[in-house]
Specification:
The chain is about 35% helix and about 15% strand. It is α/β, with parallel strands linked by helices. The protein has two domains: about 260 residues, TIM Barrel; about 70 residues, no CATH class. It has an eight-stranded parallel beta sheet. A three-stranded antiparallel beta sheet has the order 11-15-14, with no helix packed on it. α5 runs parallel beside α7.
């Protein structure tokens, strides 16, 4: 495969590999800056920025956790993350992932623009009003994440009618990705929803709106997978989990060890307060939750709207903000460790430079 560049709005990505946004704290300045430096698109996660830099940018803490939305999604910390990433990648394109399901979504999108994001990526819902939060930033490219051609069509129709603009690219995420899925439990297993069967119809839909670039995601692991997606019509790929196996990844070493030690059967779908199934590694936390013996749910950070201030967290048995941040801090007893289906295939920690070479040239 000849490696083509990927154009997203006004931004040129030398190597068409987008690093998936992973929060809390898995893809911050170290990982995102390094991926962009090596020619891919580094993506900073906006989730839980209050934990960055030992919580120095948080105004109020309760039990050592950022209190309320404005502290969990700290603007000051996000600006610092981008500044630190720029020290690594300079002026190369850098993106921010902002989940649609979070509280203060619009504010965090605008914060991302102010922090210096060239591209905003949004999943976990259909971001039908995304463009209204980037007014005044005409060069910031907008990239929604979808799981079907129908979802892309809905977004394009609404954006065109309301804002007279279209997505600069679209990420198509299949059901093998880590974290939250765009499918129900049953839909995740259907053959028609597997990534290789979704690319062509989404590319066809994208072509009717002016050949919007389609970036395939969810289970993409190596050069062979990348070649397959490009042959199906994708303009690029997004990969999250594989980048956890790098020295530059911002994840705690304990998080990396969880994946290094994981077996294929350890990576499973689970319930989530966000309202979508999520995929992660079966650990001590999941066993506690199954027995309804998990840690107390206090909803200190009020992170996502669908959780309804802890109501859904109590239904599924854990607070996602607290448990993801515990994973970031290396807590093996109570941490929630998200992973795509292929996470068990991580068997060594390499540099981002070495990984990008493997992905473009082969093992």
């Amino acid at each position: 495969m000849a490696v083509n560049t990927l154009k997203i709005g006004k931004h040129i990505i030398k190597t068409p590999i987008v690093q998936g946004g992973m929060g809390v704290g898995i893809s911050w300045s170290g990982l995102a800056g390094s991926v962009s430096k090596e020619g891919g698109l580094g993506v900073i996660s906006s989730v839980g920025t209050g934990y960055y830099d030992n919580k120095e940018h948080v105004q109020r803490l309760v039990a050592e956790r950022p209190l309320e939305v404005e502290n969990f999604y700290s603007k000051e910390a996000l600006i610092k993350i981008f500044a630190d990433a720029r020290k690594i990648c300079g002026k190369k394109p850098l993106a921010c992932n902002v989940l649609y399901a979070i509280n203060d979504y619009g504010r965090v999108v605008t914060d991302s623009c102010e922090a210096g994001a060239d591209i905003i990526i949004t999943g976990a819902g259909l971001p039908t009003n995304m463009p209204e939060f980037t007014e005044g930033y005409p060069d910031v490219a907008l990239v929604p994440i979808v799981s079907s051609a129908k979802a892309l069509k809905i977004i394009c129709k609404r954006w065109q009618k309301r804002y007279d603009r279209l997505p600069d690219a679209v990420i198509l995420e299949g059901p093998k990705s880590g974290g939250h899925q765009g499918f129900t439990y049953d839909q995740c297993a259907l053959e028609e929803n597997q990534l290789e069967n979704l690319v062509k119809p989404v590319v066809e839909e994208a072509s009717t709106w002016g050949n919007i670039p389609v970036i395939a995601a969810g289970g993409v692991w190596d050069k062979k997978d990348i070649d397959e997606m490009m042959e199906l019509g994708a303009s690029g790929v997004q990969m999250g989990t594989r980048f956890i196996g790098t020295h530059e990844c911002d994840a705690h070493d304990n998080f990396k060890d969880v994946l290094l030690n994981a077996k294929e059967e350890d990576i499973q779908l689970m319930g989530s307060p966000v309202g979508y199934p999520a995929r992660g590694v079966r650990t001590n936390l999941t066993k506690l939750v199954e027995k309804r013996e998990g840690p107390a749910i206090k909803c200190i950070s009020n992170c996502v709207a669908p959780c309804n201030r802890g109501v859904e967290a109590k239904e599924v048995g854990f607070c996602i903000a607290d448990r993801l941040s515990d994973a970031y801090e290396g807590n093996l007893e109570l941490g929630l460790f998200f992973s795509g289906t292929n996470g068990y295939r991580i068997n060594e920690i390499v540099s981002v430079k070495e990984l990008m070479k493997k992905l473009t040239e082969g093992e």
